Amino acid sequence: MPAKVRSRGEPKKLYFDFQYRGKRCREYTALDDTKANRKRVEAMAKKIDAEMVLGTFDYAKYFPDSPRAAEFAAIEAQRSGLIPQFKEFASKWIEENRPRWRIATLESNIGSINRHLMPAFGETRMDVITRENVLDFRAELAKLPGRNGNVTLSGKTINHTVGVLSSILDEAGRRYNFSNPCAGIKRVKQQKADIEPFTLDETQLLINNIRADYKNYLVVRFFTGMRTAEINGLKWRYVDFDRAQILIRESFHHGRVEQLKTTESMREIDMSAVITQALKEQAKATQGVSDYVFCTRKGTPLDTKNFTDRVWYPLLDHLGLRKRRPYQTRHTAATLWLVSGENPEWIARQLGHSNTEMLFRVYSRYVPNATRRDGSAMDQLLSNRFGLDPIAKGSEVTRA
Q: What is the b/e burial string over 197-224, where b = at least 16 CB atoms within 10 angstroms of the residue's CB?
C-alpha cells in the first residue's frame, strides 16, 4: 500500500505508515501535526513510494535510528548471498524452459540474452534491477543499428528483448520475493509489416519458369498457404487423396521435426484440383523414396536457405520481379482466396488461424463481401487457369 501520513499522541505527532518487503512499518517524527509539517512529510512519503517502485529505497537513509533499519539491513545481507546474478539466473531460465519451446523460439531468446541482456545486466543481482535500469536499457537499444539496412533496431526486436527480460525477472521475482520492475512498462510502437503477395499472373509466371524439380513444391506453397516449416516437414502419410486433404501435424525447422507453431496450426487443408494434380505428380518422384513429400536427392527435407538463395531469389531476378521472401507465398494464397470471394472463416481455418481477426487485420484491403463458400471459388479460378476440371464439392472425394 502507498505510504500514509498519520498522527497520534497529545500533542499529535506525525508518522509514516507503509508496507516494505511485506512488513507494515510505522516510523514516527518529532513534528507536530500542522499544515506546513504535514505537507513536508507527505512530500517525503511520495518520494518513498517512488523509490520503492523503482527499487532504490534505502530504509536506513530515511530512518537511520530505527530498529527496522537494522532488521532490513540483515535481511538484505542474507538475500545478497541467496539471490543470483542475472547471468546465472538467465542461464537457468533457458534450461528450464528449453523443453517447451520450439527451436526458433529458443534460438531467438538465447540471441536476445547473449547480444543485449548479458552485456547490460550480466553482473547485476536480480533483485536490484530497477524500473529506471530497464527504461535506460530500452533507450540504449533504440540507438543500436538494425539489420538489413535499418538505421536502428526495429520496434519488434526491442519489444521482444524487453519481453525476454521481463519474463526472466518475473520468474526470479516469484522465487526471491521481489516485484518485476518491467511491470507496467508499455511496448514501443511497432511498424506494421506490409505484405507483398504476388498477383495470379506473377504466380503462374513463377510456376512456369522454376526448375522442374521445384515446380510442384511451388504450386503447393502458393495455393495452400502452408508455412515454410510445414511444407518442408510434410510427409506422405499426411496427404489424404481420398478426402482431398493435407493434414498439418508437424513441421521441420533447423534440422529437426518440431511441434506446430500454435494449437490452431494442427488443421486440414482442402486440396483443389491444381494441388491434387501437383501432389500426384510429386508422388511419382518421391513417394516410396522418402517419407517427405518434397525432399533432396538423399531423401532429406528441403533446406530453406538453400532454396531461398539458390532457387528462389535467382528466379525472381531472372523474371524481373521484386525481391520478396518465399513466405510471401502464404500471403499470396490468402489474398487469392479473398479476391475469389471465399468465406473468411474457411480461409482462417486453412491458414491455421484461431479466428478471422488476423485475416481482416493483415489482409483488410483484399477482403470483398463475405460469401458462404468452401474453397470452390478458388478451385474454379485455378482450374480455369490451368485447364483442369474443378473438384465437385460435397462428393465422396471431399466428404469427411
A: bbebebbbbbbeebeeebbbbbbbbbbb
Q: Which residues, in sequence order, are bridge partners of residue 24?
A: 19
Smallest CA-to-CA distance from 302 within 235, 379, 387 is with: 235
Phi first, then psi, for residue 18 (nearest 5°) are -155, 165
Classify strands 239-240 and 267-270 as parallel, antiparallel or unpaired: unpaired
What was the pLDDT predicted at 397?
30
The per-residue pLDDT for 374 is 64
Q: Do residues 30 and 63 lie in contact, with contact meaning Cβ atoms separated by under 8 Å?
A: no
Asked whether the beta carbons of 344 and 360 are under 8 A apart, the reply is: yes
* Nine-digit cell string for 387: 485447364
The ranges of the chain with pLDDT < 50 are 370-372, 394-400
**Alpha-carbon gap, residue 278 to 326, rounded angstroms:** 19
Q: In 3D, which of 315, 304, 243, 229 has the Cα closest to residue 279?
A: 243
C-alpha closest to that of 169 among 135, 211, 198, 127 = 127
Q: How many residues does the chain have?
A: 400
Instruction: Name every residue whose Cβ is closer than 8 Å to that of residue 138 and which is 6 or more positions away in sequence.
Output: 158, 162, 185, 188
pLDDT of residue 262: 78
- Spatial contact of 330 and 362, defined as CB atoms under 8 Å apart: no
Question: To the nearest whole number, what is the mean pLDDT of the chain?
Answer: 89
Q: Note the pLDDT of residue 94.
A: 96
Q: How many whole angstroms separate alpha carbon 114 and alpha carbon 92?
A: 14
Radius of gyration, CA atoms only, the chain: 30
Torsion, CA 220, CA 224, CA 227, CA 230, rounded to 10: -70
* C-alpha cell recorded at residue 198: 504476388
Nearest to 276 by CA among 379, 131, 393, 168: 379
Could you give the CA distance from residue 343 to residue 57 in angstroms, rounded to a whole number?
A: 58
pLDDT recorded at residue 399: 32
